[in-house]
Amino acid sequence: MGGHSNKQVKDDNVKRHATRTISASGLLLSVMRWTFLIISISYLLYTSILLLPNHGKECSPNLTKQKHISHINSTPAHSSFYAEEQTPHLETPPSRRFETQLKHIVFGIASSASLWEQRKQYMRQWWRPKEMRGVVWVDKPVRRHRRNEVLPEVRISGNTSRFPYTNRRGRRSALRISRVVSETLRLGLKDVRWFVMGDDDTVFVVENLVRVLDKYDHRQMYYVGSSSESHVQNIAFSYGMAYGGGGFAISYPLAKALEKMQDRCLKRYPGLYGSDDRIQACMAELGLPLTREPGFHQYDVHGNLLGLLSAHPVAPLVSLHHIDVVDPIFPGMSRVNALHHFFESVKHDSASIIQQSICYAKKQKWSISISWGYAVQVIRGIISPRELEMPSRTFLNWHRRADYTGYAFNTRPVTKHPCQKPFIFYVSSVRYDRSRRQTVSIYSRQKVRYPQCQWKMPSPSMIDTIVVFKRPDTLRWHNSPRRDCCKIFPSRSTTLHLSVGRCGDGEITEL
Ligand SMILES: *[C@@H]1O[C@H](CO)[C@@H](O)[C@H](O)[C@H]1NC(C)=O
Ligand SMILES: *[C@@H]1O[C@H](CO)[C@@H](O)[C@H](O)[C@H]1NC(C)=O
Q1: Quick one: CA dihedral 471, 477, 479, 481, positive or negative?
Q2: What CATH number corresponds to the domain at position 490?
């Protein structure tokens, strides 16, 4: 605005000046001045066009292209099992990313000689030795790996007996474990962007870890993780602390800054309980806040994770912790087999693993909540999305009590009404249909007794199997977060066919 009026004043001055010179001097001079005037005016015009916000050249072809695509795909498809017909433009707008890859991450895993033998079976489920770098830190020598073992190298942590530790409930090993990032940094590995810390009973969905870290500039200082599910724990420790079991990431420059000061810092907090509150105390000294990513899961709970895994936040699942504490995530399987089974789904569409979608069967009046790659629940009656997206309290709190006030997010009760007990279908297999470019995941009804229901409506017990079609969506997190939409294909058999994918234009979850 200011620039514009200034320009006019200047132009007027030039004009006035020019008029005076014609009468005063010779023709040659005036021609030169007029030429100068024309050149400067056209220069001003040209630059003002360049400076306009929406000047055409680069943007408009893309804009028209995008409009065109969304128009074509806005037709709803109920007629076939092609998930892709439902999926609108899988194109992604340009966003700021840093091309971070798995090779740029170094893991520091906290373990101990006494637990490693048992815990390494969890690590085998997610560790890929040729693609990942990392070290498992223990307190004493352990048995060497067998040859061909698919696990990272094991190292013994430095001696921490010189550091004070006065907390009566905790253990001194907290000192050793809080130094894992610094000790891993001191190994001097090349081309490291992020140090990721986890426990030996943490499993990572590493593709999603990369997706999350890729959003942040690794050349700057970042402390990325999540707090606990337990409100009480967060009050006792801090809402600003990344819980170590859920895992957290520290960018290279921050790791360097931490390494320089950590041993001095550790001496200032002998009364703290664990390793992660010690890290946070040092972060506070460095002035570094926690960057929250809701996909890291400490899981300070007991019992059945179904409620949490069926209503995950609309954010990529990064980690699961306390595998030993909670029930196996699939009933009737060992913990290790359940994890193995889970990672079979992860392989097919890691970005969407346990992402929720909701749909309603009109005729039967059922609500259907899908947790992709994990479980589908069918419930009699229409339950609104705002309720279904709250985890149901299938789990207990850290003190093994049913608790409705104790969580740092909204939850809903497990209904006692005999008609509203969910029919749960756990994933049995996932495959990729290459010709239709979609995944086909099959879910089987859990064989348990359901209470008698007097409601005059079809029972979901008539369904044995649910088949979900979905196109893998590796770029979904480049867009703003949004729950996937879901469609039901009409059918009379004991198999229910659903299709899940990005919502189309104007598509919402309603009956
Ligand atoms: C925009 O169009 C240009 C040329 O037509 C192309 O190079 C570029 O990749 C497009 N960008 C997007 C986001 O589609
Ligand atoms: C650790 O250091 C202390 C002295 O600072 C020493 O007494 C102790 O033996 C050391 N422990 C180990 C395992 O080396």
Answers
A1: positive
A2: 2.70.130.10
Residue 430 β-bridge partners: 441
Mutate to test the pocket of ligand 2, among 138, 139, 157, 159 (most ligand atoms within 8 A of CB): 159
Residue 62 beta carbon below 6 angstroms from any ligand 1 atom: yes
The span from the CA of 297 to the CA of 321, in Å, is 6
Residues 30 and 83 in one domain: no
Among protein residues, the one with the nearest Cα to ligand 1's atom 12 is 62
Same domain, 128 and 265: yes
pLDDT digits (tens, 9 = 90+) for 360-390: 999 999 999 999 999 999 999 999 999 999 9
Ligand 2: centre distance to CA 158 (Å) = 10
The bound ligand whose nearest atom lies closest to the alpha carbon of 176 is: 2
Q: Tell me, using a 6 A CB cutoff, whether residue 166 lines ligand 2.
A: no
Same domain, 112 and 235: yes
The residue whose CA is least distant from atom 8 of ligand 1 is 62
User: Does residue 480 line the site of ligand 2, with CB under 6 A?
Assistant: no
Same-domain check for residues 291 and 369: no
pLDDT band at residue 18 using 50, 70 and 90 as cut-offs: very low
Shared domain check, 139 and 116: yes
Structural domain containing residue 22: 2-51
State whether residue 440 is helix, strand or coil: strand
The kind and range of the H/E element at 158 are none
Q: Is 161 in the pocket of ligand 2 (CB under 6 A)?
A: yes
Does 431 share its domain with 289?
Answer: no
CA 161 to ligand 2 centroid distance, Å:
6
Q: State pLDDT tens for residues 55-81.
A: 333 434 444 444 333 333 333 344 455
Residue with structure tokens 């229409």? 382
Q: At what angle do helices 252-268 and 276-286 cross, to 10 degrees?
A: 110
Question: Quick one: 249 and 354 in the same domain?
Answer: no
**Does the beta carbon of 289 sit less than 6 angstroms from any atom of ligand 1?**
no
Pairing verdict, β 495-501 and 395-396? unpaired
